[in-house]
């Protein structure tokens, strides 16, 4: 007889698409045999939901909601499962996790997890945790532009985001940076720099294609000025080739720059005057993210798909 697993469902109640509301998610979890307790990420006392003992934490929502949940969890030894309900779903996509809530909940084994490190960013404001990336320059400017006007739904949202990024790349002015990766310093003039924890970011773009969430390294991605045109073309069809960027890896990254917009995950900030130095590292204690397991009945067809 299966032991009842106690689950804390952390959910954005504004994720109101059919099948993504509280009742539908609780029903799917109960059907899979989980004992469910609910917590809204919009609740002022959301952090208090972690005070009671559970066997599994479920983060249900888009990238913003998932980041809120994963950076709030006080005890990272408790496994966490994902129900990606957004448009880009960058974090889940980077881990190869996709499917409907009804499918995913029946593919979870809380003992089958992957260690995933969170990033830690320190600057003039103090220290913050990051899930996706910290950036300076053109990518933050695109996110600032995206805040203006009406936000479309679904694929149109991704299409609009990619168009806005192309426009930002076209008009971006080079910025001078000094980056220090694991003690080695480099001075560069670039359109932007992104320190990534995962492969996908923004409008579903794999700008850090070499990122590995379990390698205890951050991926430093440079948008070189000479690659402006190539980057704009790649954004049009990112599935066709690797991004035309410069990659570096390191456990500790320091960036020094002047007067450029910045971003921390999906929060973007206007440029401010003066010189800024930012330190990005990885947290010592990782999260344990549940990786869905296929049912034995799910098999690759004997006649495998081949290219035309």
UniProtKB/TrEMBL annotation:
Q: Which GO terms describe its molecular function?
A: ATP binding; kinase activity
Answer whether the UniProt record assigns the keyword Cell wall biogenesis/degradation to this protein: no
Give the UniProt keywords, A-Z.
ATP-binding, Kinase, Nucleotide-binding, Transferase
Record's InterPro entries?
ATP-NAD_kinase_N (IPR017438), Diacylglycerol_kinase_cat_dom (IPR001206), Lipid_Phosphate_FormReg (IPR050187), NAD/diacylglycerol_kinase_sf (IPR016064), YegS/DAGK_C (IPR045540)
Name-wise, this protein is DAGKc domain-containing protein
Q: Where is the DAGKc domain?
A: 2-126
Q: Which domain of life does this protein belong to?
A: Bacteria
């Amino acid at each position: 007889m299966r032991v009842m697993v106690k689950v804390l469902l952390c959910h954005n109640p504004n994720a109101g698409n059919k099948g993504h509301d509280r009742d539908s998610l609780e029903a799917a979890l109960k059907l899979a045999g989980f004992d469910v307790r609910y917590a809204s990420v919009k609740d002022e006392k959301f952090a208090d939901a972690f005070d009671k003992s559970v066997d599994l934490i479920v983060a249900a929502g888009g990238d913003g909601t998932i980041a809120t949940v994963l950076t709030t969890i006080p005890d990272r030894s408790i496994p966490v499962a994902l129900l990606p309900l957004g448009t880009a779903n960058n974090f889940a996509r980077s881990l190869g996790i996709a499917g409907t809530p009804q499918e995913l909940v029946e593919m979870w084994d809380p003992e089958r997890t992957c260690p995933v490190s969170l990033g830690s960013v320190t600057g003039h404001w103090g220290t913050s945790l990051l899930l996706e990336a910290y950036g300076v320059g053109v990518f933050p400017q695109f996110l600032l532009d995206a805040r203006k006007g009406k936000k479309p739904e679904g694929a149109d949202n991704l299409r609009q985001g990619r168009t806005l990024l192309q426009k930002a790349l076209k008009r971006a002015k080079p910025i001078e940076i000094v980056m220090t990766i694991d003690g080695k310093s480099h001075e560069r003039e670039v359109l932007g720099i992104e320190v990534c924890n995962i492969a996908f970011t923004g409008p579903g773009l794999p700008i850090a294609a070499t990122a590995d969430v379990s390698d205890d390294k951050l991926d430093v991605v440079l948008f070189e000025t000479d690659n402006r045109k190539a980057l704009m073309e790649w954004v049009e069809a990112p599935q066709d080739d690797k991004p035309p960027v410069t990659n570096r890896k390191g456990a500790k990254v320091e960036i020094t720059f002047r007067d450029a917009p910045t971003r921390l995950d999906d929060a973007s900030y206007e440029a401010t005057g003066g010189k800024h130095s930012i330190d990005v590292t990885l947290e010592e204690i990782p999260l344990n993210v549940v990786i869905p397991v296929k049912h034995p009945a799910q098999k690759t067809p004997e006649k495998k798909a081949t290219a035309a």
